[in-house]
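PROTEIN DATA CARD
Card holder: ABC-type iron transporter, substrate-binding lipoprotein
Chain length: 326
Origin: Saccharothrix espanaensis
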Amino acid sequence: MKRLVAVAVVLGLAGCGATIAETPSTGGKVTVRNCGVDVTFDQAPKRVVTNDSGIAELMFALGLGDRMAGYVLGDSQEGDVGSSPWKADFAKVPKLASEINKEVVQGASADLVFAGWNYGFSESTGFTPEALKGLGVATYQLTEACLNGVGKQRGIMPPLDALYTDLRNLGTIFGVSDRADALITGYQKQVADAEKLLAGKPRPKVFLYDSGLDQPFTAGKNAAPQDIIGKAGGDNIFGDLDDSWTTVGWESVVARAPEVILINDYADGDANTPDQKRAFLESYPALKEVPAVRDKRFFVLPYAALVESPRNPAAIESFARFLAQG
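Structure generated from the sequence above:
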């Protein structure tokens, strides 16, 4: 493998749905299953507020930017806009705030909030689907972030299944099922082609490093990196954790001896850039003999490619090509 940080530009088939000629529906009662609950819409929402870059891109990929009242995006995710295949859509739709709350939603006259647990929804802040229901605002929850009934743990299905489920559901809600089906078909082919690159070859152990100096924040089996790593030909060293994004200990990282470290390009306040994160990993004494650090095997993907989003299939292809270099 190349002994340097490889930064991936994730495009691929991300915008393949744009060529599907289909006018979004404005009416018709539909019901979809979202996070284990049947949710009914009397008509397609017209003023959607999204939270997080990947969630906004799900709307953009389906050609639904004109249904958005605006998006909420944390300051640490601003880099995702610059690298987005839907940069032009971000420019057309207003950014409402850096943090979502009831006032932002009411100020936008939203009829739907599309967010997820720890992607906007939070019991601690009181910004929950139940609270918004009391304001007469419907909600749709990101499937990757569904609470699974065990404390605050999240995730109820494999990550790519979560992506495809949300695309299908949004297609049904907004009357653009043909667009959703076309995107899913393209993504499935892209993933299948990527899987061939390392078929029959040894599977390297991979550690997803999101953030954290005292304790690392990483991805369990229900977060998007599980399938990004697995479909690219590697094994997530924390794929046995029944959670999405979670905190572990450095001693666990050392014990599992990753051969590759996948770095999330996400500003966390301690190490804001991939170079700073890599410098920390290389300087941390306990990691000195970890194979990935010793051999300088690092790869970088943007935040929006590592949470559930339409960038996931292209991220798989990009990481697979890196791993295939040997």
